[in-house]
Predict the 3D structure of the following.
Amino acid sequence: MRDFRDIPRFRDVTDEEWNDWRWQLRNRLTTVEDLEDVLNLTDEERVELNRCFERFRMSVTPHYASLMDPDDTACPVRRQAVPTSFELVDRPEDLIDSTAEDYDSPSPRITHRYPDRVLFAATDMCSMYCRHCTRRRNVGTTERHATEKEIDDAITYLERSPEVRDVLISGGDPLTMSNDRLEAIIARVRAVPHVEIIRIGTRMPVVCPQRITPELCAMLERYHPLFLNTHFNTPKELTEASREACARLAGAGIPLGNQSVLLRGVNDCAHVMKELVQGLLRFRIRPYYIYQCDDETGIGHFRTSVSKGIEIMESLRGHTSGLAQPLYIIEAIGGGGKTPIMPQYLLSQAPDAVVIRNYEGIISVYREPDDYHDSQVPCEICASGEDARVGVAGLIGSDEVTLDHVTEKRLEKVRVRKERMADIHGHQEVRPFLEGRRPPAPAGEPSV
Ligand SMILES: *Cc1c(COP(=O)(O)O)cnc(C)c1O
Ligand code: SF4
């Protein structure tokens, strides 16, 4: 990391300005000329960048820009922030909204995919637009915060969805909103009686740690239990400013988690990931997920093989703290959701024993108890005979012999959400999954 005063663009900036998040947002780098003051661009890069800007926007906070290597295009920070012409490549296999968030959206800004929790996209704005962003179809094209009407509808949806006990306020990046604006949303979510926990998803601790002010922390603290997940991808992002930001959040009693994306040329190495997860713990952040990069238009050059992810997980478990172990996730296309992937530890099994192996390659046996059936003291639900488990767990907990009921349950879920939608919006249109969702424009033409 360079001292910002050593960078021509920021030579005359005062500490006070630099540490002011609004200054950071106002002074984001958005053009080739802006980049010229921070990086030593080649002629080729200039041409490439101008082509990219016809289609996608760039935005880099001064803080994040100060972490970029001025000469090395392979710098992992630079790769996440500065566009390359690879983004203009449309591959036939690439999808738009590959994870079908729009399909699972019963109200604008709400994605309701899992039984008991929803995603609430409070804004389309981020302080920095990650080149690998899966949500680029919505994020950064307008920089719009949710309107009053959208918020009203989202809250109404939450109020009518008694099964929702966990609301994840995300975006975009919700911390691009002012404290007052954000609090107005959090307070309304908190007022919904059945909402137990609130989560914030934000990259600010990484790209604009100045945003994590004592005032923000004091506000968030009033809405506990509240969790915050952030998005560090490389050890280079673990700066002193970020450490202090995380300390303020943790000091407000907010449990911190991290969601990384496995990215080619950024962190696709077992050693780099190990350094990252250990560094996160020093910042009091619990590594939560490592995502396989989605099959989304314009980010194909960041994708790695799944085997690389498995190799990384093999190199973490056992080798470093259990606290440092994230789950490695593939977001299944078409709304299948988060699917964990890991190396195989169970080698074999028989009625009386399982055979396992550990990280060192030691193979051992675990003998099953020969007198175990089900719990001798059934819980209330088991005792009632009304086991409502669905999916694969439902197959275990019921008399079903096939998973045919999965489709039924899914249709039922969609029906209930459509009903609520009709109540709130007066119509029941659900965008059909993947219909017409292929990339609209040929390479090089503006599409957003
Ligand atoms: C990731 C995600 C969640 C939260 O999932 P957890 O595994 O509980 O962290 C909720 N809704 C949607 C649509 C998501 O993509
Ligand atoms: S912070 Fe998240 S939503 Fe915003 S651009 Fe980055 S990955 Fe996308």
Observations:
- Residues 380-425 form one domain.
- Residues 111, 113-114, 117, 119, 168, 338 surround pyridoxal-5'-phosphate (ligand 1) (CB under 6 Å).
